[in-house]
Amino acid sequence: MLTVIQRVSRAAVRVDGEVVGAIERGAMLLVAVERGDVDADAIATAKKIASLRFFPGATPMDRTLAEVGGGVLVVSQFTLAGSLRKGRRPSFEGAELPERARALYEAVAAALRAEGLEVATGRFAAHMEVDLVNDGPVTFLLRSVAGQVQ
C-alpha cells in the first residue's frame, strides 16, 4: 500500500462540483492499494499516520495529528500504483482490483477513526477535484507491505 501524506492547512475534495469531504488543519492522504495488499497494510498505515510527529511544537516536527486537533482527508489514488517503466502510457497492472481496493481504502479510513481522528473521504472511483494548501510544504511517502511499514 502506498500513501502520500501531506500536511495541510486545509483540503477539500469535490465530485460534480459538490464538496464530499473537507478538513481544516491536518493531513491529506492519497492512498493506492496495490495487488497483494492485505488488511494488515491498512491498519499499519493508519497506526503510523496517527502516531507520526509531523506538526510543529517545540521543534518543527514533534506533534501528532491528535495533539494539534487535526483532521484527515483520505482519497483513493490508484494512479500511484501505476508504472511508467515502459512505453508512453502508464500501466496499472500493479493496482488492486476495484472491489478489493475499495475495501482496503475504506479500512484505512476506519482504522484512522478507530485511532480517534476526525476523518473525511473522497468518493471511491469517482472523478474528483482536490484542493489543498500544503503546509510547509511537508510531504511524505509511506509504503506498507505485508502489514509492515517499509
UniProtKB/TrEMBL annotation:
Pfam entry (one): Tyr_Deacylase
Reactions the enzyme catalyzes: glycyl-tRNA(Ala) + H2O = tRNA(Ala) + glycine + H(+); a D-aminoacyl-tRNA + H2O = a tRNA + a D-alpha-amino acid + H(+)
UniProt KW keywords: Cytoplasm, Hydrolase, RNA-binding, tRNA-binding
NCBIfam families: D-aminoacyl-tRNA deacylase
Subunit structure: Homodimer.
Location of this chain's protein in the cell: Cytoplasm
Family: Belongs to the DTD family.
Domain notes: A Gly-cisPro motif from one monomer fits into the active site of the other monomer to allow specific chiral rejection of L-amino acids.
Described purpose of this protein according to its UniProt entry: An aminoacyl-tRNA editing enzyme that deacylates mischarged D-aminoacyl-tRNAs. Also deacylates mischarged glycyl-tRNA(Ala), protecting cells against glycine mischarging by AlaRS. Acts via tRNA-based rather than protein-based catalysis; rejects L-amino acids rather than detecting D-amino acids in the active site. By recycling D-aminoacyl-tRNA to D-amino acids and free tRNA molecules, this enzyme counteracts the toxicity associated with the formation of D-aminoacyl-tRNA entities in vivo and helps enforce protein L-homochirality.
Chain ranges for the short sequence motif Gly-cisPro motif, important for rejection of L-amino acids as given in the UniProt record: 136-137
Keyword Cytoplasm applies: yes
GO molecular function terms attached to this record: D-aminoacyl-tRNA deacylase activity
Organism from which the protein derives: Nannocystis bainbridge
Name of the coding gene: dtd
Protein name (record): D-aminoacyl-tRNA deacylase
